Amino acid sequence: MSDSKKRIGLLGATGSIGTSCLEVVRAHSESMSIDLLSAHSSWRELARSAAEFLPQTVVLTGVQASDVAANAFPSSVEVLYGEEALLKAVEVPEIETVITGIVGAAGLRGTLAAVEAGKRIGLANKETLVVAGSLVTQKAVETGSVLIPVDSEHSAIFQALACGKREDVSKLILTASGGPFRSWSAEKIAQATVANALDHPTWDMGPKITIDSATMMNKALEVIEARWLFGINARQIEVVVHPQSIVHSMVEFVDGSVMAQLSPPDMKLPIQYAITWPDRIAGTSPKLDISQTFSLDFEPPDLERFPALALGFEVADQGGTAGVVLNAANEVAVDRFLQDQLTFPEIPRLCRSILASHQFESNPTLDELLTLDGWARQEALRWTSSTSHSSPSLTAPRC
Ligand SMILES: NC(=O)C1=CN([C@@H]2O[C@H](COP(=O)(O)OP(=O)(O)OC[C@H]3O[C@@H](n4cnc5c(N)ncnc54)[C@H](OP(=O)(O)O)[C@@H]3O)[C@@H](O)[C@H]2O)C=CC1
Ligand SMILES: CC(=O)[C@@H](O)[C@H](O)COP(=O)(O)O
Ligand SMILES: [Mn+2]
Questions:
Q1: Architecture in CATH for domain 2-149
Q2: Closest listed ligand to the CA of 301
Q3: Is the N end or the C end of the chain the one with fewer CB atoms within 10 Å?
Q4: Closest C-alpha to ligand 1, atom 33
Q5: Which atom of ligand 1 is nearest to the CA of 218?
Q6: pTM
Q7: Which residues surround the ion ligand 3 when the cut-off is CB under 5 Å?
Q8: Nearest to 203 by CA among 222, 188, 190, 223
Q9: Domains 2-149 and 320-399 share a fold
Q10: Separation of CA 204 and ligand 2 centre (Å)
Q11: Nearest in space to 58 (alpha carbons), one of 84, 89, 32
Q12: Which residue of 126, 127, 245 sits with most ligand 2 atoms within 8 Å of its CB, as the best mutation to test the pocket?
């Protein structure tokens, strides 16, 4: 019955999260349907998905109608252009759940529009909470929007939290694969190429998050994400390296019990759960085969070889404007590294430098955050083009 289908708006439909989400919907076409798809510039791929899923609306935020072939989309599909159109499109009452698969701070405004419209959010875009965690979580409380994590660690924690009362939680333990350089020496890491850094041992993801995993900035961003999503003090969050990516994270309760969620690394499971919660349905994600011998290893993270991780704890503790500045600096640094214009160890160095130079404000507005985002990107670009890597200018906008 089409009336009882779960109706989904999917932002970032052409990316890694987007295509996994479409696989979930394809496997459950009797109970799920797509109302909205968005992409930035990959219009051919979006058109293929539109032909299969027949959403009411598609939005392309990074190209214009004149860039797209005439009749590329089925005639029943409304084709819109630009971010403002996307912000309106997520609000339509028919959409129940919005899956946020846009990469980077570019995902913030779409997520916020969906939160303001009181939607269920399947939150993959962790940068939304890194940049504006306080504003977004407050807004969700006001509108009744439920933020269901899609990020695998946070989905695991969300599931494990169901085993006890919030006031009885003593610690959240985020697992990290350790990335491709987990066992590399600092000297070898300093020589890492783009191809080395893109070679993630356990997850197949988009390029930005894959580089973040290699620096462990991904875990830093996830510490900040957890701080806002679960309303917990940064000092109650711990990171442990777990190379198999089977234990997706854990919650320790005051009595010493540790509850974990386990499954083979596959994003379809947390995406599906965000759509079906509080129900569980059979899916296409592989199941853990415990009939075979396998081991689960855990080791402490090495903050000297992976200095980005410390930034996550510092920023999660500070709140305010620290997250937007760290995130913007990191987005520029990752982009420059992918263009071979920055070395791997310069990524966290750049981030720390821009963060240290900004004028901290504890309670910024959305406009102030967006202004600081622009400032931090400019300063990060300036840093990458200066041979001496001098300190950023002290012209950070005051909030
Ligand atoms: N991949 C994964 O397994 C996981 C991802 N996440 C998070 O999910 C988010 C998406 O990651 P991932 O799927 O890997 O990323 P991808 O790079 O694979 O996909 C990014 C998507 O965002 C769109 N996009 C890119 N830039 C913009 C922009 N400026 N405005 C609007 N849309 C844009 C792209 O469209 P186009 O194709 O047209 O460029 C594409 O659809 C990230 O925040 C990541 O941290 C979290 C956990 C796991
Ligand atoms: C799948 C997912 O959630 C990613 O964020 C993943 O966790 C990245 O792996 P790392 O643990 O190497 O950062
Ligand atoms: Mn993750």
A1: 3-Layer(aba) Sandwich (3.40)
A2: 2
A3: N
A4: 40
A5: 45
A6: 0.97
A7: 151-153
A8: 222
A9: no
A10: 9
A11: 89
A12: 245
Question: Cα-flanking dihedrals φ and ψ of residue 8, to 5°?
Answer: -120, 140
Taking CA atoms only, the protein residue closest to ligand 2 atom 11 is 176
Ligand 3 center–CA 151 separation, angstroms: 5
Name the residue at shortest CA distance from atom 17 of ligand 1. 206
Strands 97-100 and 78-81: unpaired
Residues with Cβ within 8 Å of residue 326, at least 6 apart in sequence? 130, 220, 224, 311, 315, 351, 354, 355
Q: Once rounded to an integer, what is the mean pLDDT over residues 136-162?
A: 98
Q: Which residues does residue 10 pair with via DSSP β-bridges, in sequence order?
A: 37, 99
Ligand 1 centroid, distance to 160 Cα (angstroms): 26
Residue 5 marked in a binding site? no
Pocket of ligand 1 (CB under 6 A): 12-18, 39-42, 61-62, 101-103, 106, 124-127, 151, 203, 205-206, 208-209, 267
Asked whether the beta carbons of 96 and 10 are under 8 A apart, the reply is: no
Exposure string over 283-303, b if 16+ CB within 10 A, otherwise e: bebeeeeeeeeeeeeeeebee
Ligand whose nearest atom lies closest to the CA of 218: 2
Segments making up each domain of the chain, as ranges? 2-149, 163-264+300-318, 320-399
**What's the CATH code, domain 320-399?**
1.10.1740.10
Q: What ipTM did this prediction achieve?
A: 0.99
pLDDT of residue 2: 45
Paired strand residues for 239: 174
- How far from chain centre, in Å, is Cα 255? 32
Who lines ligand 2 at CB under 6 A?
151-153, 176-177, 179, 203, 209, 213, 218-219, 267
- Does residue 57 surpass a pLDDT of 70? yes
Q: What is the largest CA-CA distance in the chain?
A: 64
**H-helix segments, the chain:** 16-27, 43-53, 83-89, 108-116, 127-143, 152-160, 186-190, 194-197, 207-215, 217-229, 268-276, 308-318, 322-338, 346-357, 366-385
| pLDDT score, position 394 | 46
Burial, 204: exposed, middle or buried (Cβ in 10 Å; 0-12, 13-18, 19+)? exposed
Give CA–CA dist 62/187, Å, rounded. 40
Task: Tell me which ligand sits closest to the C-alpha of residue 42.
Answer: 1
Q: Residue 388 pLDDT more than 80?
A: no
